[in-house]
Specification:
The chain is of the alpha/beta class. Helices cover 43% and strands 12% of the residues. It starts with a helix and ends with a helix.
Length: 770
Amino acid sequence: MTATSAAAAAARATVYGYPRQGHHRELKKAVEGYWKGRIGAGALRETAVMLRAANWRQLADAGIDEVPTGDFSFYDHVLDTSVMVGAVPDRHRAAVEADALDGYFAMARGTQEAEPLEMTKWFDTNYHYLVPELGPDTAFAAHSAKQVAELSEAVALGHTARPVLVGPVTYLLLAKPAPGVAPDFEPLTLLDRLLPVYAEVLADLRAAGATWVQLDEPALAQDRTAAELNAAARAYRELGTLTDRPRLLVASYFDRLGEALSVLAKAPVDGLALDFTGPAAANLDDLAAVGGLPGKRLVAGVVDGRNVWINDLAVSLSTLGTLLGLADRVDVAASCSLLHVPLDTAAERDIDPQIARWLAFARQKATEVATLARGIAQGTGTIAAQLAANRADLASRATSVLTRDPAVRARAGAVTDADARRPEPYAERAPAQRARLRLPALPTTTIGSFPQTSELRTARADLRAGTLDTAGYEQRIAAEIQDVISFQEKTGIDVLVHGEPERNDMVQYFAEQLTGYLATRHGWVQSYGTRYVRPPILAGDISRPEPMTVRWTTYAQSLTDRPVKGMLTGPVTMLAWSFVRDDQPLADTARQVALALRDEVSDLEAAGTAVIQVDEPALRETLPLRTADRPSYLAWATEAFRLTTGGVRADTQIHTHMCYAEFGDILPAIDDLDADVISLEAARSHMQVATELADAHYPREVGPGVYDIHSPRVPGTAETATLLRTALAAIPADRLWANPDCGLKTRGWPEVRASLDHLVAAAQEVRSTL
């Protein structure tokens, strides 16, 4: 038997992770029930055991030969890693020692006494992770009980299982200096201290029956310095030469490995798991260039784990055929964890059956992986029926009139550079806006949404069920807007919002009113903790049949003399938080969305709206992982924002908002948006972004957040004023706003009332000293 035929015969199907929430978001309900005291820790853990067993059973039924363990989490897998290695911040140590579960949630959400860990985006996805806090005095210690227990559960159920852990290099590269530690401290210097802890965890897993363990190193798919690559080489040289360990599979995804590929290929590990989709398709040629992986296992991620379109099985089989000659054994997988897609298309009863055949959620992707593994192991004749059906579905999508609108394409093709630029520079716009708005120094505002109460959710559910008619529903929305406006006026907020009670989600709400988008009913995807979203599916060309926000914005404005912001989601975020079409360049789709939103901006302005906020929280999130790919992305992304806002008058103030990302990488692009005011998350990072903007000589107005809305803790007036004074040290008072980090929809009214009261009081206190 040749090496190629042996690799094919050995092919097995596997995945790196699976959606955690359950078919009916049982995990969300259980965790939130525990937080509210409705269930105890035992019931929460029983729910987790049930969900893990159901996931493994679904994967096995789909044909997956080796299931992952350790990917399940009550909140976040990076936080789980911090617990595994004993990296608990000092401010949370007593809580963790008193009760491990409550201490875990305190690190994630904070308490009134202790701030949570900072939260930011997981590479270029919309998943948020809890940032490890490390310093020179960090003492690591192994705590592998979770990882061992979940492996034991899977084995007891009869599954072949592979624990999946965040790798040590990625863990350190994702970390930040702990509070009080010098900001130039590099967590990677702790590698030699961390590796023995990983060695102990690996030994524990081997003792529990693990034959393979996967160590995820997606940070190596980014540009890395020689020192960082040397650290990776050292890490896997040390772990690879351990005697008491399972076999090691090092995984990377989201982009090509580049120089890191040769480092890992030479390491004394037993296999690599690589992404071969999208920009990571370059891994194919790169792997051949380094001589392949002789004597090692290759897990080939050929099914896109981040998007919802069916796989082109023929193309994947061709890729796998090439890879068979490059490794001792080739297995088939999705490109990354299936955490990033919904669970099952079978639950979507409202989608056109023709379109449904174009879609693959996690359960369907697992079947695709298993089909491809069977095809290369047993021959394509064994999957002939699946290949024929796949060809027909791909052809159906390619030729469907549902995907192309000639009028939309003609309008997008006629766009000029002038369309994407406001004619007046900011220096001329600012006086006109100040004269129109007449705001005080340090004006206060919020980001847009107010608490989505159970009554509002019930009203929407009743409307869908037909137990509440449209008139009754709209009466409830109007009453909620009245309450939100009244509260803001009494609190003393300067620029108001209508609170968005009619909106189910900041992307889905608009997608449901634009042509070319599909909305799901059960397509939930975890964003962070118990926050799940239903990303809409961008299936065809985009246009706006009628106004989407004007009615409720103008109604809110009729209730007050203070300015009420019009609230829109920007074109890049509309793409980033949707499942985008993969049959045309993203830039083309962004332009279509921008033109649809431009129409909305024009109608808001015509209705008298003086302040319009176009949120782009995903601008940084969607930044390509490789530096060389960034200029082209930022060019079309910033053009799309300016195309959305470029048609307004000088005295109309354009705001934008960004949150939970590393903004320092894109400051020139933020400037290029040419927004009059930008609000950004800053509370958890203690105003770091304000300093970054000042250092970059950002010339326009800024609202760095002074209230962390992702934590239940209520910051006091003094704490909020301190943050404002920190911001003032970087941003002049005539360009500084006071606002929360993000929208308030996930918070409860009691904490929102108290926090905004403190925010306004803090702004007034600081204002009085100017």
